Amino acid sequence: MEVIAWGWEIALALFFGGLGGGAFIIAVITSIISGDKYKEIIKFGNYVGVVGAILCILFFALDAGHPERAAFLYSNLPTSMISVGSTILSIIIPLGIVYVSYHPPEALPLVQTIKKWFFWTKSFMLRRFIEAVLFFVACGLVGYTSFVLGVVWAKPFWHTPLLVIVFFSSGISTGLMAIGLLSSFLYPVVQGEHPKKVIVEVLHRLDVADAYMVVIELGAIVSYVFGMYYGIPIVAPKNPIAAASAATLLYGELSLIFWILVIVIGILTPLIGCILLAWKGRTARFIKWYPVVMAIIAICALVGGVFMRYSIVVAGQLIH
Amino acid sequence: MTELASRRSFLKACSLTTLMLLPPPLSFQSKVDIKQNLKQASILYDATKCKVCGLCFFACKTKNKLPIDENPVWTGQKLSERTWVTINIVRSGDGLTSYLRRSCMHCLDPPCLPVCPVKAIYKDDYGIVLTDYNKCFGCGYCVVACPYGARHIDKEGVVYRGVSVKCTMCEDRVKQGLKPACVTVCPFNALEFGERNEIVKKARDRVKHLESNGVKGYVFGDEDDIGNSVVYVLPEEPEELGLPTREMRIPPPVALQELLVQRGGLAIFGAAALAFLSFVLWRREMILRAKIKEIPKT
After folding, report:
1. End-to-end CA distance of chain A
2. Is B216 on the interface with A (CB under 8 A)?
């Protein structure tokens, strides 16, 4: 295999960036639409968002030759997409932490003590303001993970607006699934029939939303790879290098990763799982299996999300 | 194999010797000529004159103290942190073979420069594209942005561990009024050094000369906008030899505008965002309506 500049670390950074941004978007939208009715979604969306954004920075730093020079990363705004991304991450992490204060992890003993100091949580207007800013910055974070590749003309396989839709739908989908995974872990912990029903209701909402996102993701990724392979004008002009990169995914050295891990495990399994859960999941016979199935499809979607980014990042660099 | 190895050793020795025995008066003479006119330092590579002797490869290695592998085969080497200049034998689509020098092309508008988040990449007074090793973050963005695959992260610490390295056009020699090492040792005049305008003129004249003799010739890198400081005279179409297309050489800020505006990226992104927002608002409306229906009429 060719020596490539960007590998696992960058793929994971893009994955966690998309996941974190997606989780924030879900949390904010849920809060705006239904207030605190689905508190678990807002809460877990927030936690996943903050952790995802931090892991995004960490993996970028891990890939860098001199991470100790990170303070200079903002020098080339707005020209360098990495400078743009660093700025977005520097805004979203503290903002996300402030937003966490509205739904702190109450199980932690320290939180009970310091909760009374969060005086700003009493202001509803401030919360809406934070949510509005967070929504746009989170969209920027998810968008950034695709633009950082999309602006590189030297790699024609990356240079298409469709990549934005692929990464955006995948970011939202993996965000939903990460929240779903945490919520399904909560199911055996909570006591009583009503809280368990609430968790299943939360999982159902996530499951239905994910089914929509996965359909968009599937359509986008199929259009992207085949569009690049055949040079379909709306995707990108015909380019032999882009076609060769697409060929490595379709039947070349990355084909196993692409077809098995990305398409079958990462997209089709969650899609079928989501449809089955939405259809039969809440019936008396299957309801106790809902969180188990949800956890399995969530893990599949997350694994698929990682390998989708890895295969796109590597395929774009293999041919030059 | 032994013969090949001995020939390589011989050439290797030749290159080292040539570099060491450069006559001082000649260097001094070229110093005056080069520095007087130089605004945009430029190299002409004439593939129709190149004999793939590999002296430029060894000269670069020696000058930059890059490791020379045991029994090196310079014709097949890829650019890396250990190899900044190489000569490849390329077979084009119609089966013809051509020689192709690979190195940093010192683009007039380098795609690696705007992507650098720490502004470590710059052009010096002679238009040579350089990296400030003390600033470089080592993110590798310039490596993926380079359409020629000339940049590499120095993972081994050959020159400076963890930073982006590539051909420097021997900027220290150029500052002293000397030609780059590879140009100095070329015995077939396949490499020439000078002011870019003159180099481009020479390249175009050479192609005219070849065509007048019934031989095809192409100039690569002579454009004023996305051209390079390393200009090629080639016997085949540049794209046939695997050189990047014009689109692939456009620097990212221009590329971003193009991606967003001209190629409908913004429209698609905006439409997707609007569709998503509409869906969310529609769902909210549905939920509210359902709630209103649930309220018992009094």
Report:
1. 13
2. no
Per the listing, tokens 């207007």 go with A125
The count of other CB atoms within 10 Å of the CB of residue B248 is 23
Least CA distance to B144: which residue of chain A? A5
Strand partners, B122: B130
Q: Could you tell me which chain B residue has the CA closest to the CA of A242?
A: B248
Of all residues in chain A, the one with the smallest CA distance to B138 is A65
Residues whose CB is less than 8 angstroms from the CB of residue B150 and which lie 6 or more positions away in sequence, other chains included: B79, B84, B102, B103, B104, B105, B166, B167
CB nearest to B153's CB, from A65, A70, A83: A65
B177 touching chain A per CB within 8 A: no
Residues of chain A contacting residue B80, judged by C-beta atoms under 8 Å apart: 3
pTM of the model: 0.88
CB atoms within 10 A of CB B4: 10
Q: Which residue has the tokens 């979203």?
A: A92
Could you tell me which residues come within 8 angstroms of residue B187 by beta carbon, excluding any fewer than 6 positions away?
A: B53, B55
Residues of A within 8 A of B153 (CB-CB) are 5, 65
pLDDT (tens digit, 9 = 90+) per residue, B185-213?
999 999 999 999 999 999 999 999 999 99
What angle is formed at CA B204 by the lines to CA B200 and CA B207, rounded to 5 degrees?
Answer: 140
A contacts of B118 (beta carbons < 8 Å)? 69, 72-73, 75-76
> What ipTM score was computed for the predicted complex, to two decimals?
0.92
In this structure, the strands spanning B121-123 and B129-131 are antiparallel
